[in-house]
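INFO  loader      accepted 1 record
INFO  loader      residues=292
INFO  predictor   begin
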Amino acid sequence: MSSAQWHIGVMGGSGLAEGLGLEDAQEIRVQSPFGAPSGPVVQGRIGDVRFTFLARHGAGHAIPPSDINFRANIDVMKRCGVTDLISLSAIGSLREEMAPGHVVAVDQLIDRTHGRAGSFFGTGLVAHVSLADPVCPRLSGLLGTAARVAGSTVHDAGCYVAIEGPQFSTRAESRMYRAWGADVIGMTAMPEARLAREAELPYAILGMVTDYDAWRDSEAGVEAAEVFAVMKANAERARATVGHLAKILPEIREASPIDTALEFAFATAPSARDAVLVAKLDAVAGRVLKKG
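INFO  predictor   done
INFO  writer      dumping tokens
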């Protein structure tokens, strides 16, 4: 058995629209019953490891956080046969020690988004998955190690508060998030993490710090120009990290508990399930739904 067992999906955030520089890269348009994804995927490899990349904000960063079709994006990754999913995202820091240029292997999430479709399931097919630990520790650990090899200063844990945006926080909000125990802030990890779990995809976030959020009263508030300036260097570091990740993945991908997250999640009896919704979920939940 070889490392080809791994098929890593990469959701590229701000600054990564041009991709990862994969070998044998092919751009493919994949359709989803949940609507249009952010764009085509790019499939290729790094060494012996297969990768599928999707630019979360689309070509030219045309899609704001609130308008991302997270369900279609995750569904497309599942249809591509991805086994594990990583998010590379720009984040703001709520802690002095997490400085611009550092990276954070996020381990917890607080969801402050609203109005986004946060589940594949609904009326006609009810399911409840555990989200107590929303990030896969195995994948996150490997990603953090790869980031260190790439030369980054890595924080091995951090609580990410996901806000709706597109505006940055007020100072009062920023101070509140710090009081809640949040360490970093961004606009895209939710509902992405929720949907990845429902799709039985181990998920990890490597957050790349671009700025300090507005909690430092003696400093100016966050400005987009400041964020964009740091983003370019972060993008190069992210590409290097993915390259090192391909090299350090274990030869054999052992099964993860997340691979079977839906096993006992369905509350709706088979006789009461909505056939249209069941059909839409052929990729996300087909493994379990085929059992009846």
